[in-house]
Design brief:
By secondary structure, the chain is an alpha+beta fold. The protein folds into 2 domains: 151 residues, Arc Repressor Mutant, subunit A (Orthogonal Bundle), CATH 1.10.10; 81 residues, Roll (SH3 type barrels). Helix content is 42%, strand content 16%. Helix 3 packs across helix 4, helix 5 crosses helix 6 and helix 5 packs across helix 7. Bound molecules: zinc ion. The site of zinc ion (ZN) has 5 residues, from helix 5 and helix 6.
Amino acid sequence: MGYEMNDLAESRSPSSSVGDYLKAVWELAVTSGGAASTKDVAARLSISPASVSNMFARLQEMGLVRYERYRGATLTERGRKEALRLVRRHRLIETFLLEHLGYDWQEVHEEAERLEHAVSDGFTERLAELLGHPDHDPHGDPIPSAEGTLEADDSFPLSQAATGQRVRISKVRDEDAAMLDYFGDRNLVPGRWLTVREVRTVDGVVIVEDEEAEVYALGEPLARSMFVRSETSDLGEGN
Ligand SMILES: [Zn+2]
C-alpha cells in the first residue's frame, strides 16, 4: 500500500525506507560480493530482522530484489538502477557540502543521508552541473553516472596489502566520523601515496610511511576502512 510501483517510476525520491533498503543491499553486496543477509541489513539500518524479512518480501513483489530466506537479498537490474540513482544523489550532495558549504569531510555523510530523501533528480543534475560532473565524492567513492553506470573498482583494503608494497589511497569508508577525523588530521586522504612497512599478522596492525616519511601504525579497523590501489608502474616516483 505505501509502496506502490509508481513511487519508483516517477523521478522523485522513492519512499525513504525503500531507498534505504536498496542502498543497504547494494552496499553489502559490494563488500561481500554476494547476497545481503537479513541480519546484516538489520544491523545496518538498526531494524529488527523480522521487519527486514517482511520488507525483502515486499521489495521482491515490486521486482526490486530477489529474496531467498536463508541466503538473503540481491538486487534485480531495476533495483540496482534505483540504488545507484540514490548513491549518485548521496555522493553529489556530499561533494557539494564539502566544496560549497564549508563542511568537513567527516560531517557530510550524515547530512547527505538526510538530504538525499528530500531532493529531486532535477536538483541532483543541477548539482552535478554546478560541481563540474565530478567522478568521485570527497571520500574517494566513485559517483555513478546519471545513466546508472559505475566504474569498476580495483581497490582493496589496506589490511590486504603486502609488506614493501607502494600503494595510493583511493577511498576511505565514509560512515565513521571519528575515523575520518583521524585520517583527515594525518592527511591520509584519497590520492596520497603510502609505503607499507609491515603487515603484522598477530594483531592486524599495518605500519605505513607517507611521502613525508611520517610513519603510522594503523590498527585493524583503520586498515580495513582505508582502500588502496597498487600502482606498480609508478614505483620509485614521488619519494
Ligand atoms: Zn556518504
